[in-house]
Amino acid sequence: MKAAYFHGVGDIRVEETLPPEAGADELVIKMKASAICGTDLRILKFGHFKIPGGTKRVLGHEIAGEVVQVGKNVTQFKIGMRVALPPNVGCGACAMCRRGYTQLCPTYEAFGISYDGGFQDYVKVPARAIARGNVVVIPDGISYEEAAMVEPFSCAYHSYKALNIKPGDSVVVIGAGPIGGCHVLMSKLAGAAKIIVADVQDNRLEEMVKLGVDVTVNSAKEDLKQAVLRETDGEGASVIITACSIPQIQTLAMELAATHGRINLFGGMPKDKEIVPLNTNLIHYKELTVLGTTGSSVNDYCESMALVASGKLNLMPLASARFGVSQINAAFDYALSGQGMKTLVVEE
Ligand SMILES: [Zn+2]
Ligand SMILES: [Zn+2]
User: Fold this and answer.
1) 60 C-alpha vs ligand 1 centroid, how far in Å?
2) Distances in Å between the alpha carbon of 42 and those of 179, 271, 332, 339, 344?
């Protein structure tokens, strides 16, 4: 079979390997669709602290496929089942896992980081992932591609729950990448009265128009604060989501918010840029709520899958391009180019 191994910064190679064998407590799935995430792009550029130098790893944590091998002790899955894999596997025993925040487990393991992930023909599912509920049956009517995209959406869903977006809210999303698109879809579903998306790339803003946003702002050409004030009758927005890794945007978010506005600093900062100046008087006098969310729990993932299954949420407009495992470098080049939304690696 073919597997695309990350060997180090900037180095992914397609290799011919033997397909994995399921141990007694494991599964093997035939990969049908695995989406490329911003995290994969960051690992390719900068590496990852959980992938030590000298080890090779198959990236990809947005995975959907068909069960093709079932270990003899595994009773709840059968050959032929369609499954998707919420990537973050908690230990099950720590305070965070007990409260359901599996993505905050200090010893979490993850597909595409601690385990070989989705950019290969067959994926082995370790016993711990099965035991922790990280194998989710895909409801009928959801394609493998759409199931693979539940993972990025679930991060926006987790953000939505923290922000408590309500009907009538005005929402500003800064960053028109695929995750920005997920925030748009979630905000629409929550009944936001007006959704404003800002980015510096016109092609990405055009994608947002297809997703049904009300206003797009190219913040390289137009002053974002003026645009937000204009679109909110001078009040500022009730919700701001920074879906990018730019310190100045976090600073600006405080100015874009209305009194009692809620701000999610969704995008993390690179290590050397994490100290960001904020006008705390804006937080104080406007009684802002400034919070952060990261990733999503297995529960967020399952609830997101249920939203898709309900027919109220369609993730397919996010799918822009498809490549086989053997074309992995072309797939990463496409994703890095900032064209389209989600890049999918699919069964060849
Ligand atoms: Zn992801
Ligand atoms: Zn834990």
Assistant:
1) 8
2) 14, 13, 11, 17, 17
Q: Over the stretch 201-229, which tens digit does the pLDDT of each residue have? A: 999 999 999 999 999 999 999 999 999 99
- Compute, in angstroms, the gap from residue 236 CA to the centroid of ligand 1: 30
Mean pLDDT for all residues in the chain? 97
Domain ranges of the chain: 2-149+315-346, 155-291
256-282 tens-digit pLDDT: 999 999 999 999 998 899 999 999 999
Which CATH number applies to 155-291: 3.40.50.300, 3.30.465.10, 3.40.50.720, 3.40.640.10?
A: 3.40.50.720
> What pLDDT sits at residue 270?
85
Which CATH number does 2-149+315-346 carry? 3.90.180.10
ipTM > 0.90 for the complex: yes
Note the ligand closest to the C-alpha atom of 118.
1
Whole-angstrom distance, CA of residue 34 vs CA of residue 64: 6
Distance between Cα 61 and ligand 1 center (Å): 6
Distance 320 CA to ligand 2 centre (A): 35
* Residue 259: its H or E element: strand 257-264
